[in-house]
Structure formats: structure tokens, C-alpha cells
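Here is a complete protein record:
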Amino acid sequence: MRSFLLLIPILALLAACQSSYEYLVAQGYPEPFAAGYNDGCGSGRQAAGAITGGFKKDVPRYLKDAQYAEGWSDGFRQCQAEMASAQQRAYEEQRNSDRDEKWEHDTDQAMAKALRSR
């Protein structure tokens, strides 16, 4: 169950970032920046522990094209942070759920004990 809860935000992020190239170009960003962002975003998700995707960086282009390099760095940082944040939220939600279940169990046990002692 816990791994399933972690998978939900990860899949949402993958869907959100999947068309980042087209979105950025449509918003007026230069093609090299959009391509770099797209590559960096996938790399950032992978660095944060995503199951799918992988590290992608056109190193010759990164070294020669400042817009690609800036896009790659921005995409990497943003998507890595989003993935880490989503994982942290899922972990906290699971932790809170476990705590709530324990509290409910303890309350039920205390109520049963109180009713038995009447």
C-alpha cells in the first residue's frame, strides 16, 4: 500500500513534465532552453529516485549552448525538488495514516476495556 501511495505523486509529476518542451515553446521560450529543460527535468526526476525515465544530457550542446545549459539546470533543479517534495508528502500522509490507525485501535481497546469492567 505504501509503495502505491508513493507512486501516485510520481505518476502525476511524470504526466505534468512529459510535454514540458511543447509547453515552453508555446509560451515563447527559445527551443534550446525548452530542450534543455525537458532533458534536465527527466534527469532531475531520476536523480530524486523516479522509477521511470533516466539521465539525459546532451553534453556537447550543454557546453556550447548557454540556453540549453540554463534550461537543463533549471529543469533538473525544479523537477528534482518537485519529486522529492511529492515523495515527502506521500511519506507524511502514510505516517499520519498509520498514526491515526494506531490511535483508533488504542481508543477501541480502551473503550472495550471500560465496557468490560462495568
Notes: The radius of gyration is 22 Å.
